[in-house]
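Minutes, methods subgroup
Present: GH (chair), OT, SY

1. OT presented the first of two proteins processed in the latest run. Sequence and structure tokens recorded below as shown on screen.
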Amino acid sequence: PVGGAGALTEALTRRLESRGGRIRCGQRVARVVVRGGRAVGVRTAGGEAVVARRAVLADVSVPALYGDLVDPEHLPAQFREDLRRFQWDFATFKVDWALDGPVPWRAERASRAGT
């Protein structure tokens, strides 16, 4: 995007803040607070309670979120069992490039890949 890769982060931040959301950096979350089956806030490692007005967003792995941050009593037994068997796999990601021509692949096989 125009402005570099950071422009996407900045745009998402502006959108969130325009809707009343806040991003807090540099604070470790110790626990996701759950009431009535819903995440209603977090407690920081420093002991501060942060109450969510609408949602709690987590940017951590599944094992970190459900294994460390959410109390197991809030999770169905089958989910906890599935989590115990969780195995990391190869990561998948997608990158979109705006190019002025085809990619000059060195490997013939790669040049036949569809998009």
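2. SY then presented the second protein from the same run.
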Amino acid sequence: MKKCKVNYNRTDIILKPHPLCPHQGEPLYIAWRGENRGRDKNRDTQVYSCLSKMFRSVIQILVIMSFVLPRNAFCAQLRLDFSQDNRTYIWNTSLDCGREVDQGLSWGFSSAINSMLIKRSVFSNNQDRWQDDGKINLNLNYALTSRLKIGALFSQNINSLEKRKVTSSEYGIITEYSISGVRLVQIIGGKDIDRRLKEGKRKDSGFNHRLEISHSPHIFSESVTHISLSQNNSHLSNIPLLERDLSVSFSRNSSGEDSLEFFYLESWSKKKFYSGVLTDSQINTQRKTQRMINLRSSTQVPFKVRVDFDFDFVSSRYKYFGEQDLGSPGLTDNFSDSQNFSLKIKRQFFKRLILASFYKYLETDEDYTGDQKDQKMKNGELGGNLGIRISEKDSLYLTTSIGVTSFYAPEVSARFNDRDILTLFAWGEYLHVFSPIFSLRLEGGFRNFHQVYISNRLSANNNHNQTYVLSPTLIWRPHPKLDLKQNYNIQANYIYYDYEKSIESTKNRLFRRGSSNTSISYRLFPRVSFVFGYIYRYEDYGQLIWKDQWVQKPSWERRTHTFSLSMQYMPAKSWAFSPEYIYEKRKSWDHFTDLVTLKKSRALGDKFSRNMISLSCKYFVDDRNYISLSGAHRVQKSTMGAEETSDFATVSVSRVF
């Protein structure tokens, strides 16, 4: 019998499938950080040990159950992710599985543990910063009859940030009963929340009850309807919670041509929560009501025109009460409404031309009952796109839109900056295939934001923000083993103010960028290939001056050269090695103008260089099973600062049992 071995004290993990596990079974996600790390011993005991022991115990129980219980197999997928970026270390894990032990008896388990460490700088007196989040869910279900099921559940969440730690646990008994299409689920149990902060600790415990009634009546053919009513009541000692939800959903798909989806939600909740210092905190009450409506429809009308319509509406109301009817500072009754809809019309002609037009509208309203944070926003956008296959070798795509966004706020509001933003957008792509080995793609576009303030005291901020882009790309394959790709990109960004166009304002500015990107790929052998890349980039930035036309007064310019060389080597079908080397060199110049002679000059401001070498290794068992290791070492120098050395590492493992 093959075994499953997990070594928790090392980064290597050996996992082999259980002989009874069918590959088509439900996957189990497992992730574990395999590294010993030094930190404060007290904190190790409180957080890391708790998480690790909890996780190890559960895994051991599940593995034992998979061997002892004789019925259906225990199936799993292992997942491990670790990454290190300079002084930031991240561990991400997850575990999810389910198994039918015997006829009518099944259990399920899910877990996730995420940790992040930000190590302190050698130039700082701060301590290392830790954040841990862990959760597990375990449930057991048994079908007494075809209508009645019973079960048990347990869940625990741990959230820790430095000296703050919150642990919440839920446990209970589940009963599920179905009759005449009506499904009733009831959970009776308890809930505990343990808070440990720097200033003290506090624990809340109480009775927990959840009831859900659902029904899926058959109203129309080719349709699905679902109605659900639920209530959750947590009788915690100091901070009870009561929630009620009503939802209705309907969907219908007629012969794959027309579709309709509708969803309605009405929810209400009342909860108490702490505010202020934990040892001397005030208990406040929040009452929340929410309404949500979603509508989606798609239909084909005469003349083969396709019409799509979407509508969304969300309304939320929050009301706060404090001890002795005095709300805490910062807690303000408020409500927010948002609604948006879109209409799209599309028509295809002769299987070569597709025309589409659309209109979108969005409106939001935030009201804090007279508070300075009140604000409204409205947005409308009208546009269309065209796609055409001109010939066997030529195709064209165009899209354009115009829109207006308006912001409103009371004059006493801190957000009083009522304004309209006019947006113009246009983009086009053209593709020409000269031959099977040579093609040209041309892309270009324009975008303009014109911001106009309604108030005369803010109108001096009226401005234009315009961006132009042109990017041609040539692709040539002169030999089956050789691919050449050349891309050019030109971009210009103009920002100028309406009432300062005729003067030399420092607020008017221009940023320009031009780049050339060359890529050469060569397959030396079927399992060995090389990629060489070179990028040249020129950038400048400066003041924008109007003299019958726009001219630039440069402030600085920058030139960058980047070389890269990588190799892809596959010694076997399941193995891949990818070493890469990147070298970057950049020079920056500052521009000056002599105030007396008006002579222009420039001076070298900064010289920057970067060397980075990386290596990645992947092992593929199949599409779902793999191990990936990658690391990089980077050294960069600058005349503006000291030499900097950084190391990066990433580990990922996925295994399906």
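Chair's summary of item 2: Residues 1-51, 65-71 have pLDDT under 50 and may be disordered.
Next meeting: continue with the remaining queue.
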